[in-house]
Amino acid sequence: MKVIKSNFRAQATILIFAGALIAAIPLVKLLVFAFIPYQINTKKAAIVEIHKGLSPIELTKTLTSKGIISSGREFMWLGRLARQWGHIKAGEYEVSSSMSPMEIFSVFTSGVSIAYPITVREGENLYEIGRSLAEKNLISSQMEFTQLCSDPEFISSFQRFKDNPPRSLEGFLFPDTYYFNRTLSKQDIAKQMVRHFFDFWKDDQNSRSKSLGLSIFQLVTLASMIEKETGAPEERPLISSVFYNRMQKKMRLQSDPTTIYGIWHRYHGNLQKADLHEKNEYNTYQIPGLPIGPIANPGKDALQAALYPSKSSYLYFVSHNDGTHEFTSTYTEHLAAVRKFQLDPKAKQGKSWRDLVKRHQAKKG
After folding, report:
1. Are the C-beta atoms of 121 and 115 separated by less than 8 Å?
2. Which of 37, 87, 136, 164 would bridge 109 by S-S if both were Cys, CB 3.0 to 4.6 A apart?
3. DSSP 3-state assignment of 176?
4. Rounded to the nearest 10 degrees, what angle do helices 72-81 and 56-65 cross at?
5. CA distance 209 to 218
6. How far is residue 302's CA from residue 225's CA, in Å, rounded to a whole number?
7. Are 217 and 291 within 8 A, CB to CB?
8. Is the dihedral of CA 42, 47, 50, 55 positive or negative?
9. d(CA 122, CA 119)
10. pLDDT along the chain (365 residues), means of 10
11. What is the pTM of this model?
């Protein structure tokens, strides 16, 4: 009888051990899956876009279809047991089948997404910015961005514009280099640029603008004109003074860049005399004072020049044809400058605004 009981206990122990071993097999298999890449000796990689609201099932199907993981079922279970699904961040990521599933999860939860640099240069307008974004496939089309930036409902969603929204976000898309991923919405992209503008525009700038008798929209409009009129940093406060002096004397501002913006949809590089006579809300040859809104997105220096113009008696400026200008106080002096720098063909020979760019690059170098 004792022998029978002893054998029974031994058999039971073996059965329990065997059962535990069998039960552990799936866990061991899952551990192997978690830390061993699907294909070790491969350079196969894929770009995976994770948008807000993407489900674990959808993401797993994407990875399986791209040949990044060997088992969708095990990947789903691994995400649950390792508590990874709740920590995945929206973004665009590059993963490879030579990465283990746990390494793939670490990429998705890092938030360090692939980013595409977009440089908004001083003086670019929203049409040019939209084109750059479309070229990088960050938005579907230029028109999509320009329409958004003119959408009253979207503009009013900004707390700063809630009570007195501008007609568009032109002027408030702050020049800088941004890094965007393709999972960002066009709204997110625009918001980031506008937010950057208000990183610069604080209470001090607002108070200064009011002391000059200008609203933020008028100040930014003036700054955009200064930005477009010269590429020479040292000239911006002088250009600003010319515009202030003309406004004080109730003279028309007669700025070519404002006229160009007013016909942007059909402008092809040459401003005609007929264009100067066309009356619209941007043509400062035909309307008094500032145009109805900004004509580009000014940088920090142009905004500072609009806030703090030089003290001068200048009312006119004429291009030297090399990116700089001749400033004059009287109409007689202005006509003389026009004859010297614009009507004399020799004054233009071998000169270009690119000369100014070269000088700036030489100074930096």
Report:
1. no
2. 87
3. strand
4. 140
5. 9
6. 9
7. no
8. negative
9. 9
10. 45 41 62 89 87 94 95 94 94 94 96 94 97 96 96 94 93 97 95 97 96 97 97 95 98 96 90 91 96 98 98 96 94 96 82 59 55
11. 0.84
Return the bridge partners of 167, or none.
none
Q: Which residue has the tokens 């060997």?
A: 70
Rg (CA), the chain: 32
Reading the block at residue 106, the tokens are: 């670490």
CA distance 199 to 209: 16
Look at residue 351 in the predicted model and tell me its pLDDT. Answer: 65
Contact between 318 and 325 under an 8 Å Cβ cutoff? The reply is: yes
Position 43 scores a pLDDT of: 74
Report residue 86: phi and psi, to 5°. Answer: -75, -5
Residue 184 and residue 80: Cα distance in Å, rounded? Answer: 27
The SS3 assignment for 99 reads: coil
Query: Does residue 98 come out as left (phi exceeding 0), alpha (psi in the -120 to 50 range) or beta?
Result: alpha
